[in-house]
Amino acid sequence: MLNPEEIIRQTQKWINDVVIGCNFCPFAAKEVKKGTVHYRVERTTDRKMAVQAFIEECKKLDSEPSIETTLLIFPAAFQKFEAYLDLLHFAERALKKERYEGIYQIASFHPAYQFGGAPLHDPGNYTNRSPYPMLQLLREDSVEKALERYPDPEGIPERNIAFARKKGLAHMQALLKACLS
Fold first, then answer.
1. Separation of alpha carbons 36 and 22, rounded Å
2. Across 69-133, where does the E strand assignment appear?
3. Residues of 48-58 as b/e, b for ≥16 C-beta within 10 angstroms?
4. Could you say which DSSP state residue 101 is in?
5. Is the N or the C terminus of the chain less surrounded, counting Cβ atoms within 10 Å?
6. Would you say the C-alpha torsion 141, 106, 70, 28 has a positive or negative sign?
7. Cβ neighbours of residue 45 under 8 Å, at least 6 residues apart?
8. Residue 95: other Cβ atoms inside 10 A
9. What is the pLDDT of residues 67-112, one digit of tens each?
């Protein structure tokens, strides 16, 4: 098992080479440059403990306004996409239960991410494929402000999928694989 620093380095490479490099998130580069991205590697394999870690990160964002977004990385758990979707479901429920709905939102990434109705090997899935299962916490007010200034924000997912499909499966696989080296 890799140490947390190596997992974070690989995740940062993914953000720079894939998320920013492919412009999947047009807002990521600014936050990376400002150093406002927080990374937490969580070793638990227990879903309840993972959701607890998620809520801890919400509280960290409450107390540290200099952090714009958090990536909660699970290198040892939720390898099966279905198990990850269960985690995502329970994290979303916890967001509501802890009264964080409308304050924070979740973006989801997984090595085997598959959009509903998309074939497994569709290059478009790589818009949400990451080196490890992870949950990203975003400040909802910051997201809203960024989207107000961005032309056609509703079209971002479709543009990203079209870009990935144009690049092709081999290219997208190679980009992701390179993050793990």
1. 20
2. 69-73, 104-109
3. eebbebbeebb
4. B
5. C
6. negative
7. 76, 77
8. 21
9. 999 999 999 999 999 999 999 999 999 999 999 999 999 999 999 9
d(CA 176, CA 19): 10
The amino acid sitting at 41 is: V
- By the 8 A CB rule, do 120 and 89 touch? no
Please tell me the distance from the alpha carbon of residue 159 to that of residue 71, in angstroms, as a whole number: 23
The sign one gets for the Cα dihedral 10, 11, 16, 20 is positive
Give me the amino acid identity at 15.
I
pLDDT in tens, 159-168: 999 999 999 9
Q: Dihedral sign, CA of 88, 146, 18, 8?
A: negative
Higher pLDDT, 92 or 26: 92
